[in-house]
């Protein structure tokens, strides 16, 4: 029986390993993490984060061929194939601070693998890493287990799941990318990984490349997606200035088959733990290779995103007679996107901080994010003007304004007539996700701002 160990039980490691266990009943999958609290959450009824369909998959496999453990070394020792899904955040200090990937966690995982292994292993990069990381990892592994005569094959198998649709993305991926050495041992390792995916992924969706192409493709993938969001958001600013409507521009663009309709929704900006970090990593790699001009191109994607968030805050404050001081503003949504409880780099953080900076009082509701998460993200020590509440109506009671910051489906169907009655007048709505029917809201009496649309129509 093939044994797999997944190092890192986070948003990537947990769901990817659970789906492998589901689809490959003859493979034993152990997911390990240095965080005891994360592992005990995976072993409890309340998983460490919300992801649609995840609980069902975990419940089907846990206790059969899927286990979660903090005994990292034992399961690494026993495994034939090790998937490494540890975090690769942006360096906060030293050379490359603010741009380069911090590979501390990866390096310590590699050293631990070398220390405990006693047999040949395939080590799979699932984390997003800088191009040529496999070279460094290879050195760490082989130099640290020289005396044991162990051989490692390193593969790059970047993960393309999106939070909120992770299980669907894993069950039905549009592609699986496997990069490896092109010598006989490398090709053999690639084949072994292909054999696992072949349990449920059609052959024509499994792409194999060299290591560096696979590593770089993941960074390129996130950069292209984020660039598309910044492109439509840049257009949204121009729409507001000219009287064009961004939804109409998106529709027209999306019908061009060379462009396509996806990722063309204007919004308050992108968030999540990956886009910014991976683009800054790309910028750093460009600069390290003397390609400053190319790095500058990608940097603009981040700058437009920052601009979009600050433009939103500016619009809220200026619309409300240039001051929100002491005014209550209801915030609907704090997660970085719908169907996840993840708040990492959520645009809601910057918007809330911007409004608090102007002395607003916030009443925040998100269906999946906890009060503790919000307090942590807003560094709320000493901030008194924030209340985290249990439903949308409570968030809007006596509020002067309402901001939609996450596109949760439930925000489309709440009773806005009731919300209007709840609120101070004039009642403002700022739709940062363009999910509401502006005309209906205006009929009710709201003053409405939605991204990329003229203010008054
Ligand atoms: P995460 O922070 O949720 O999970 C990482 C886990 O690794 C943590 O639980 C941490 O305790 C554990 N860990 C760190 N060092 C360890 C070690 N030495 N041994 C055992 N466990 C260790 O991160 P994530 O969101 O799952 O992302 C992981 C990687 O996948 C990152 O490189 C990220 O860029 C990439 N990625 C993320 C997404 C996403 O949507 N979150 C999608 C694709 C790729």
TrEMBL record:
GO molecular function, one term: NAD binding
Catalysed transformations (reactions): UDP-alpha-D-glucose + 2 NAD(+) + H2O = UDP-alpha-D-glucuronate + 2 NADH + 3 H(+)
Keyword Transport annotated: no
Keywords of this entry: NAD, Oxidoreductase
Family matches, as SUPFAM superfamilies: 6-phosphogluconate dehydrogenase C-terminal domain-like (SSF48179), NAD(P)-binding Rossmann-fold domains (SSF51735), UDP-glucose/GDP-mannose dehydrogenase C-terminal domain (SSF52413)
Amino-acid positions noted as binding NAD(+) in the UniProt annotation, renumbered to this chain: 8-13, 33, 38, 86-90, 127-128, 163, 274-277, 344
Catalytic residues identified in the record: 274
Residues covered by the UDP-glucose/GDP-mannose dehydrogenase C-terminal domain: 330-438
One GO-annotated biological process of the protein: glycosaminoglycan biosynthetic process
GO cellular component, one term: nucleus
Family as reported in the entry's similarity comment: Belongs to the UDP-glucose/GDP-mannose dehydrogenase family.
NCBIfam families: NDP-sugDHase (TIGR03026)
Name under which the protein is recorded: UDP-glucose 6-dehydrogenase
């Amino acid at each position: 029986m093939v044994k797999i160990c997944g190092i890192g039980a986070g948003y990537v490691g947990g769901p990817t390993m659970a789906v492998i266990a589901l689809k490959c009943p003859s493979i034993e999958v152990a997911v390990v993490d240095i965080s005891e609290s994360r592992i005990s959450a995976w072993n409890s009824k309340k998983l460490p984060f919300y992801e649609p369909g995840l609980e069902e998959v975990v419940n089907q496999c846990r206790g059969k061929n899927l286990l979660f453990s903090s005994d990292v070394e034992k399961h690494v020792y026993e495994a034939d194939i090790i998937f490494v899904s540890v975090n690769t955040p942006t360096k906060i200090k030293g050379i490359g601070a603010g741009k380069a990937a911090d590979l501390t966690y990866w390096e310590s995982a590699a050293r631990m693998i070398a220390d405990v292994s006693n047999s040949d292993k395939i080590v799979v990069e699932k984390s997003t890493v800088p191009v040529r990381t496999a070279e460094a990892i290879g050195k760490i592994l082989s130099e640290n287990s020289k005396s044991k005569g162990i051989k490692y094959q390193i593969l790059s198998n970047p993960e393309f799941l999106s939070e909120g649709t992770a299980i669907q993305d894993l069950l039905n991926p549009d592609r699986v990318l496997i990069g490896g050495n092109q010598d006989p041992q490398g090709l053999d390792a690639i084949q072994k990984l292909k054999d696992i995916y072949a349990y449920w992924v059609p052959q024509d969706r499994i792409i194999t490349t060299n290591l560096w192409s696979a590593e770089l493709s993941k960074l390129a993938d996130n950069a292209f997606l984020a660039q598309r969001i910044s492109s439509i958001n840049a257009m949204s600013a121009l729409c507001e200035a000219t009287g064009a409507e961004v939804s109409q521009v998106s529709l027209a663009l999306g019908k061009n088959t060379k462009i396509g309709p996806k990722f063309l929704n204007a919004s308050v900006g992108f968030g999540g733990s990956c886009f910014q970090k991976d683009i800054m990593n790309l910028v750093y790699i460009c600069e390290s290779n003397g390609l400053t001009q190319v790095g500058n191109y990608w940097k603009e994607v981040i700058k437009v995103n920052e601009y979009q968030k600050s433009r939103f805050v500016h619009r809220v404050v200026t619309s409300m007679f240039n001051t929100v001081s002491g005014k209550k503003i209801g915030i609907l949504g704090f997660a970085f996107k719908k169907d996840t409880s993840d708040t990492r780099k959520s645009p809601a953080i910057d918007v809330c901080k911007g409004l608090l900076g102007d002395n607003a009082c916030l009443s925040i509701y998100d269906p999946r994010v906890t009060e503790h998460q919000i307090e942590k993200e807003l560094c709320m020590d000493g901030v008194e003007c924030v209340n985290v509440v249990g439903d949308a109506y409570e968030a809007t009671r006596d509020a002067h304004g309402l901001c939609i910051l996450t596109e949760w489906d439930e925000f489309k169907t709440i009773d806005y007539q009731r919300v209007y009655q709840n609120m101070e007048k004039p009642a403002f709505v700022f739709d940062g996700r363009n999910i509401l029917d502006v005309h209906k809201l205006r009929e009710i009496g709201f003053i409405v701002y939605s991204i990329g649309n003229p203010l008054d129509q």
